[in-house]
Write a structure and sequence with these properties.
This protein has 205 residues and is mostly helical. Helices cover 72% and strands 0% of the residues.
Amino acid sequence: MDQKTLMNTLMGDVAIENVSRMSGASTQQVQQVLSAALPSLLQGAQQQVGSSGFAAALADHAKDDTADLGGFFSHVDMTDGGKIVGHLLGDQAADTAEEAAERAGLTTAQTAKIIALAAPLLMSLLGQQSSQSSGGAAGLGSLLGGLLGGSSGSGNSTAGALGGVLLNLLGSQSQTTSTGKKKKKKTGQSGQTADLLGSFLDLLK
């Protein structure tokens, strides 16, 4: 699976329309939310490539059938989606939802729901890439690095790189994050991470 296939599936009309229907947001708002959140989600995934826990999660999601996105979303697990977001974004989950909400003109709860709906699809696509590629983790890391411009630096650089991919593949308008903050994941703080994950899941209720 190449960058274009992954992005066209994740940000294509069928996926956007299903997320729009399930979240109550317009298709344009869904595009705005995902364009804002994807750089952080992909960077979070890139930082976990090679870890046993992430590899196990990818293997589990690789079994999902993404050929029929209508069927995929009819069985999507929102709780699982919230947990994925929590694991990928860590202490940035709530901030990412709030920033995307401001950009799209939605409530934070709606934005959190959109991100949680898209997260399982992202994991399924990345899982399929990992299982199908002879390069394994290295191949997945290469794919993510390409989407992120080969950089794990500031939020501005990664958002700008992915924004270019979105513009090239979809012809949609995408903006870089306004904060310019570097996204960092904290390790060794399982209790805090659990609290932050709980806060994000509360937005989905």
